[in-house]
Amino acid sequence: MAPEKLVRRFWESIRHIKTFIYRFYVWLVLVFFYAPIFVLMVFSFNNSKSRTVWLGFTFDWYLQLFKDETIMHSVYVTLVVAVLAALLSTVLGTAAAIGIAGMGKRQRALIMNVTYIPVLSPEIITGVSIMLLFVWSGLKLGMLTLLLAHISFDVPFVILSVSPKLRQLDPHLFEAALDLGAKPMSAMRKVILPQIWPGVITGMLMAFTLSVDDFVISYFTSGPTSQTLSITIYAMTRKRVSPEINALSTLLFIVVLTLLVIVNLRQSRDNKQPQRKEEDVR
Amino acid sequence: MDVISLRNISISFDGEPVLKSISLNIRDKEFITLLGPSGCGKTTTLRIIGGFTKPDRGDVFFDGQRINGLPPYKRHVNTVFQRYALFPHLNVFENIAFGLRITKTPEKVVRQKVGEMLSLVNLSGFEKRQSGALSGGQQQRVAIARALINKPRVLLLDEPLGALDLKLRKEMQGELKNIQKRSGITFIYVTHDQEEALTMSDTVVVMNAGEILQVGTPEDIYNEPRNAFVADFIGESNIIPGVMPADFAVDFCGGRFECVDKGFEKDEPVDIVLRPEDLTLIEAGNARIHGVVRSVTFKGVHYEIIIEGMGCMWTVHSTDYAAVGTEAGLEFEPFDIHIMHKS
Ligand SMILES: Nc1ncnc2c1ncn2[C@@H]1O[C@H](COP(=O)(O)OP(=O)(O)OP(=O)(O)O)[C@@H](O)[C@H]1O
Ligand SMILES: [Mg+2]
Prior knowledge:
The structure holds 2 protein chains of 2 kinds.
Chain A: H1 3-43, H2 60-67, H3 69-101, H4 105-120, H5 123-137, H6 143-168, H7 172-179, H8 184-213, H9 216-221, H10 229-238, H11 244-281
Helix pairs in contact in A: 1-11, 2-11, 3-6, 3-8, 4-6, 6-8, 7-8, 8-11, 10-11
Chain B: E1 2-13, E2 16-27, E3 31-35, H1 42-50, E4 57-62, E5 65-66, E6 77-80, H2 92-102, H3 107-120, H4 136-148, E7 154-158, H5 166-183, E8 186-191, H6 194-200, E9 203-208, E10 211-216, H7 218-223, H8 228-233, E11 238-246, E12 249-252, E13 255-258, E14 268-274, E15 280-282, E16 289-298, E17 303-309, E18 312-318, E19 327-331, E20 338-341
Parallel strand pairs in B: 3-8, 3-9, 6-7, 7-8
Antiparallel strand pairs in B: 1-2, 1-4, 4-5, 9-10, 11-12, 11-14, 12-13, 14-20, 15-19, 16-17, 16-19, 17-18
Helix pairs in contact in B: 2-3, 2-4, 3-4
The site of magnesium ion (MG) has 4 residues of chain B, from α1.
């Protein structure tokens, strides 16, 4: 064989090995992330209390979940708080985003940074500080405080989801509506809202997901009768060791995962559309 | 009867004066054009009339009533925006119907009126199209129909033809003029294209740097420009410095010429305007103005010839050809000489 050919073969095989290593690495990371959850899921169907030995398939743990009053109550609390928090924070966040969009450049930059801080700061700090605020103001920890806390950490995400939509908006649309006789509120409803609607819905889904998912902040701001699912799961791991936890965690994981997938799909779809529009203008 | 009057309107943005105490009266049912270079304050003037921008000082009158504080949705004025600003989530029909929906007009009337508007702007059959799926010219027409459906007293148009190609522009100029005549609505039109302004308007307002330089009919503005800026902006001009020694006489380029202007002070320094199309090419030998041909450009109907001589560059529009480098002379009549005060 000609020497060049040999050299080329050599480099080709090196490249193959490289690709293989890359792929392997990605899979390794994925396994690392998902193996615990996978094990948890598998054992939620295990016909035994054991967490190590597989003794056949059963749905029993799932059925027991629905008989457990503590769990069912926490599902109820979680859903009520998540739905209300999502709705209210969507209204507040959308209004805030519209207000921010109407500000001057410097003011807007300032407010947006302030909005980012709770998103980036450690949850435990947010949780403790909100709890201290409630204690200081004399509010009894319970459903209401839980709801208020959830709204406060949901709002920034709604703002961050709606703001880009507003930025893409033609600034003259609002004026055109006023020009044609619409009062400001009706111009908002008839022209601005339909344009930013995808961002509003994405923001609401995101708020709902975060609320269902949240543990740390809920832990500090809920009362004894208003425990969310994640708090109940945490409490269960301390008291009785039961495979119910596996079943419950599996369900929670699947719900949150589904919601996240929906949010991400919506976001990537939304991001594609405006680009196409901008090209049209040019 | 004036439908709109502006009195001493001033406005600054970030400390920069943009309109410097402008006053303007706009007659009912006229086609008036604000003409001026980019950034001179045309859009700002329109926005003040539309109610989108509040002037720092001065008053806006509508039918003799002061309307400074009146919000846009209460003014009998509608706007065709510079970039159309069609509602992207509505189809053509609903875009045009928007103003009627606001007033909760019965469906039957909406249908009938939108139908009328669509045929007025030649878009019948486009009802169901999304506004994004229209060409520039079609979007333009939807914007006009949408603004006209409320039967405003005044329509503001901000460079509505700016984004169209030349041929479509010419077509739309004619159509707009027709729509204006048929509807009897006052059009306040903004452009920086002098030809467009001259062909369409009843009145032209020439603006520069936040000031109104001249208001008049297209003929007035063209034939009697008030100063060198107006003369230069309205079509190409040769502007030459000179002196008026007496009525009906003017000195420039080392000679004395007969003219038709009077009423200047003795020996007042003036600007003389000679239009390129008023200059005639003649033999160099017996011409009072002569020079060397520096460039010749074919412009379709005529040649644009630049001649250097007598300390000036002369632009001439002529159907005759002159070769580069040859000697050429120029001739003109006394009434071709326009004389303006120095500004
Ligand atoms: N909202 C604003 N904030 C700051 N400056 C502004 C604002 N609106 C207009 N200006 C400034 O005022 C000046 C006049 O603007 P205007 O839009 O009225 O010009 P124009 O005559 O319409 O120009 P063009 O032909 O380019 O549209 C410009 O220098 C512009 O930068
Ligand atoms: Mg403008």
